[in-house]
Amino acid sequence: MLSKKHYLIIDYLSDKDIYLTSQELAQRIGVSSRTIKRYIEDINYEMKNSRVEIVSIKGVGYKLSGPPKYIQSILKEALKIIKGLESDDSMESRVENAICLLINNDYLSADELADRLNLSTSSVHKMTSQIKECLDKYNLKLVSKPYRGTCIEGDELNIRSLILDYSIKYDDNNSIRVGLSNITNKDIVTAEETVATYLKNRNIIVADKDFNNLLSKILVSMSRTKKKKSIENLFLTSSYTLHNYLVIHNIMTELQESLCIPFDEKEFRYVALYSGFMIYNYTEKNIQPDEVMDDNIYHFIHELLEEIKIITGNDFEKDLKFMDAFSIHIKIAINRAKTEVHIKNPLLQQIKSHYPVEMNFAMFTAKKMNDRFNVKLDEDEIGFIAMHFSAAQERINTHHIKKICILCHYGIGTAQLFAERIKRCIKNVEIVGIYPVRYADMALTQNVNYIISTVNVENLKGNIPVIIVENMLSDESIKKIDETLSVAIKEREILYDMFHENAFYCVEANAKEEIIAEIGKKMTQVGLIDEGVVASVLDREKISATDIGHMVAIPHSPINGIHKSVIGVAVLDKPILWDKYEVQVVFMICFNLAERKNLQIFKYMYNLIEDADLVKSIIKCKSFQSFMRIIQDGI
Q1: N or C terminus of the chain: which is more exposed, having fewer CB within 10 Å?
Q2: What percent of the chain has pLDDT over 70?
Q3: 602: closest CA among 360, 382, 386?
Q4: Three-class HEC string of 63-93
C-alpha cells in the first residue's frame, strides 16, 4: 500500500519535460536517496498492472512513463491522497473498514455495520455493491442470511488472501499494523521475535520483504486457527518436500508452545507454501540442497544446463552458489505451479530491461519444465528464475578482471597519476606494470590482456591488443579505454553486421502482432529468415512482452540453419501501446544459436538503446544509411 510520500514522488515526476534525480527527490520529500530508490521500487510494484512505471535514465534521473490517460488517472489518485481527501470518510476508506469488520466477525447485520462505521444504515446499503466488487477480485461472496446477518463466504485460501491485503499492513519503516481482533499485541511481538531469533541463531538471512511476508502468513495462520478455520483443499500430495518446511515447522512449533495455539499440519504447509520464503544459507542442521531435491529434478537441471552450455557456451554448473540456489528454486517453482500459488515479483520490469539474455535462459527453463513436469510458470516466476542466472553472470563478470600494462613516455609521476585514474574510473581492472616506452619488450613478458600506450608503438611483437591514447588525462581517453575493455572492436563489427540494409523499414501499424508480422514478412521475402520465425517471436511475446521503455521494443527469437543472425529494424509512424509502454522503434532480433558470440552482442544492444537521445534520433530516420550513422555514433 502506498503512503503519502509515495504519491508525492508520483506528483513530482508527472511533469513530462522534467527528470529528477534521487538526490533531488530526497531533498523535496525529506528522506535519504536510498529511501527514494526503495519508494520507487514500491511504486512500480503497486503500479505493475496500470501501464504506468517510473523509469530511470542513467545520469539523467527518474520520470513517470506510460500512456497519457493512464498517467492522468494515477496522478488524480495521487493528488487526492496528497491533499488529504483520503480521510476516513471517503468511500474507499468506508469500504475498506467495512471489509475489515466483516473479516473479524462471522456475521454482522446492516445496523451493526452502520453503528461500527458511524454511518446510517442507508449509507451501508449504498456501498454494498462496492464491497461486493472488491470481494469479486478474490472470488468471494457477500452473503446475507436471515436472522444472522451478512458474512463473507468462499474458499479459505481466498479469504486468507483478502486478510493479507486488508488487515495486515506495513508502514515505511517496516513496522507492522495488524487489524485482526483476535491477534493481540503480545501475539504480534512474540511472533516477530520468535521468527527473528530463530533465523538469526541459525545464520539464516532473508530480505526484509521475505521476512514481512513470512510473519504475515504466520499471523494469518494464528488468527484462522483461533477461529477454527481450516484449509480443506491445500495441495499436500506432492512428492516434493517443501524446501523451507523444517524451518517453518520449528518456528511455528515454538509459537504453538508459547502462545498455546494448536497448529495442525496443514498450517505448517500453508505458511511454507505461500510465504515465498527462501533459504540460501544452509547452516541449519539437516537442511541441505541434496535432501530437498530428488533424482528427477537433479537430472532435469543437469540436462537443462548442459543444453544451455551447448547453445551458449555458459557453464553454470561450475558455479556452486548458483547450483544450490537454483536447485532449490526449481523445486519451489514446481510446487507453486502445481498448487497455483502466485508470488509477485517487484523487480520483474527491471530484470526484463537489464538482464534480457538471462530472461531468455529463464524462459527456456520454463519451457523445459513444462515439458518434463507438466507445469506452466507465470511471468513473475520466470523473472525469479532469471535472477539466479543474472547473479551467476555477475559473478562471472566480476571474475573477468582485465590485466593491463601501461607504456608511458612521460615521467613516472604522470604515469602513476594516469594509472590511478584508470583504477578509479574503470571497473574490474588490474594494472600489473608501468613502463617507459623503451621498455615495451619487458611489458610484453607480463601476462596481460591489454597494453595502454601514450604513443604509437611500432614493431611491437606479440598478440596483445594495444590501446593508443594521446591526451591520457582527458575524459575522452578514459572513455576510450573503458569502451575498448568492455566491448572489443571485433564485437562491434559483429553488431554492425547484424543490421542489414534490406531489414530497415518505416512502418504504419496499430498493434504489435501486426508489426511483427510485417517485419517478418519483409525479412522472409528477401531471404533473411524462415517463415517459422514470426510464429516463434509471437509465442515468446505471449510469455513475456518485450517492450523495455524508452519507446523501444525488442521482440526476438533464436533461429537455426544457414541464416546468419540479423536484426530487423522498424520505425513506426506513430507510437503504439505495446504492452505496458508506448513503442515507436522495434528491433526484431533473430540470432542463430550456432553463433554463441551473438548472445553478448544481444545484451549490449539493450544497453545501447537505454540512451533516450539516441532513440529519439532513430525515430527521425528515414533510411538505413542515416540509421547506421546514428548507431555507430552511439556506440
Answers
A1: N
A2: 86
A3: 360
A4: EEECCHHHHHHHHHHHHHHHCCCCCCCCHHH
- Asked if pLDDT for residue 605 goes beyond 60, the answer is yes
CA distance 357 to 368: 17
* 445 vs 253: CA distance, rounded Å: 65
- CA 308 to each of CA 53, 302, 305, 352, 368: distance values in angstroms, whole numbers, following the listed order: 33, 10, 5, 19, 11
Tell me if 369 sits within 8 A of 333, measured CB to CB. yes
C-alpha 13: how far from chain center: 21
**Whole-angstrom distance, CA of residue 240 vs CA of residue 237:** 9
24 against 286, higher pLDDT: 24
Mean pLDDT (whole number) for 423-439: 83
CA 187, CA 258: separation in Å to the nearest integer? Answer: 10
Output the pTM of the full model: 0.56
- Report how far apart, in Å, the C-alpha atoms of 402 and of each of 397, 405, 462 are: 10, 10, 18
Cell of 634: 552511439
**Tell me, what's the pLDDT at 84?**
58
CA 489 to chain centre: 31
Task: Please state which of the ranges 84-98, 317-331, 363-377 shows the lowest mean pLDDT.
Answer: 84-98
Phi, psi of 140 (to 5 degrees): -115, 155
| Mean of pLDDT values over 430-457 | 82
- Distance separating alpha carbons of residues 550 and 582, to the nearest angstrom: 8
What is the Cβ-side half-sphere exposure of residue 136, based on CA atoms within 13 angstroms? 6
Residue 41 CA, distance from chain mean position: 10
Nearest to residue 460, comparing CAs of 451, 449, 472?
Answer: 451
Assess contact for 541 and 516: CB atoms under 8 A.
yes
Please report the pLDDT score of residue 342 as a whole number: 76
Q: Are 103 and 163 in contact, with CB atoms under 8 Å apart?
A: yes
Question: Measuring CA to CA, which residue among 375, 386, 232, 376 is closest to residue 308?
Answer: 386
Q: How many other C-beta atoms can be found within 10 angstroms of the C-beta atom of residue 182?
A: 12
Pairing state between β 429-436 and 402-408: parallel
Which residues contact residue 580 at a Cβ distance below 8 angstroms, ignoring those fewer than 6 apart? 51, 53, 66, 349, 545, 547
Query: Is residue 538 within 8 Å of residue 516, measured between CB atoms?
Result: yes
